Amino acid sequence: MTDSDRGENRIFLDEEWILRKHSLRPFAFNLMVVGETGMGKSTLLETLFNKRFDSVPATHENQSVKLKANTYELKESNIQLKLTIVDTVGFGDQIDKTESYKPIVDYINTQFEAYLQEELKVRRSLHMYHDTRIHACLYFLAPTGHSMKSLDLETMKKLDTKVNIIPVIAKADTITKAELQKFKLKIMSELVSNGIHIYQFPEDDETVAEINRTMNGHLPFAIIGSMEEVKVGNKQVKARQYPWGTVQVENETHCDFVKLREMLIRTNMEDLRESTHHKHYELYRRSTLQQMGFSDDESMSLQETYEMKKQEHNAELQRKEDEMRQMFVVRVKEKELELKEAEKELQLKFDNLKKQHTEEKKKIEDRKKTLDEEIVAFQRRKATVSAAAAAAGAHQPALAKRKK
């Protein structure tokens, strides 16, 4: 293998700068990938870092978006990288996609909150703290060739103040070069018109200003990922083979994979980390502390601010307690009124039933009296008939004797 070949397979190019910055201690880089299932996210990450990661193919049957984080220790020469990859499993698989962004935003905020809590500790150890804040977000766009989906626009709007977004067009070998160029222009136009701010490679450092300026003009990157090696000429290269030909991953005339790797890993990794801390985390920190009652007002000390916020908090608790007590009294009165109304209804029903019972009882007694009278009359008639029959029986023998 030649020196140039070894250079192509290296992940971290600026070894001297990284060693100067981080010594021999592993430094963290946290990468989030957002995109619908089947976009080739896992394949691209394996290609970027030249490593097979533990990944389970996702299905389209997820009922909600779940964030899955995996941390890997990578080492090249004297550089140690603690890489955390956060995948958005199930993104875009739901019928109702209106709130697909929420689990992602919540996850990012949770990492900010964890760092803030560590920062506010009396005895803190930030140099030993495993920073889980997201430094970059690779946002995978479907190669439609037309326009961005409303889901992507809405999600990117919610994320652009919280994370460095780097948009990429997935599976760029499925559309022609002419369509791809038009699609890139269309995406950038839609991002601007919707007020979405993506990460711009910094141009204030003279050593990288020119290349970053050029690469900013290539956004969004059209990428292809593959860990399969194909022999092209006398070299083994990563590529995807089709019946009509071979698409080389690291051939810049075929896709922007090399540009993405150069910008993300080799040139701007530290700027992504610093941008996360000084821009996105600082915005979260400032907003959170302001909500807690802290401000830049030098006329109040930290203790005074704390006491003031404590009093406000206690007053708010007292107000809520009074509201709950009043609500409880109102509810009790309402319940008492309901019970009284129910009692009235039951009493009315009871009186009606009692009246009906009395009337029915009187009817039965009247019928019984009538029946008794009928029985007495029947017995009288029966006795009369019996007496008449007996008299007739006695008269017939006497008549017979006379005839004789």
Summarize the structure.
This protein is α/β, with parallel strands linked by helices and about 400 residues long.
Please explain how this structure is put together:
The chain is an alpha/beta fold. It contains 10 helices and 9 strands. The longest helix has 102 residues, at 302-403. Residues 1-9 have low confidence and may be disordered.
Features:
alpha/beta; six-stranded mixed β-sheet; elongated; three-stranded antiparallel β-sheet; 404 residues; disordered N terminus
Q: How many DSSP-defined strands?
A: 9
Q: What average pLDDT do the residues reach? A: 86
Beginning-to-end CA distance, first to last residue: 165 Å
Walk across the major sheet and give the strand order.
2-3-1-4-5-6
What are the low-pLDDT stretches, counting only 5+ consecutive residues below 50? 1-9
Q: Would you list the SSEs in sequence order as H and E?
A: HHEHEEHEHEHHEEEEHHH
Helix content: 40-55%
Shape annotation: elongated
Number of helices: 10
Gyration radius, to the nearest Å?
44 Å
Sheet with most strands: 6 strands, mixed
Portion in beta strands? 5-15%
The secondary structure category is alpha/beta
Blueprint (SSEs and pairs):
Blueprint: H1 3-9, H2 15-22, E1 27-34, H3 41-49, E2 66-76, E3 79-89, H4 102-119, E4 136-141, H5 150-159, E5 165-169, H6 177-193, H7 206-216, E6 221-222, E7 229-232, E8 235-242, E9 245-248, H8 257-267, H9 269-291, H10 302-403
Parallel strand pairs: 1-3, 1-4, 4-5, 5-6
Antiparallel strand pairs: 2-3, 7-8, 8-9
Helix pairs in contact: 8-9
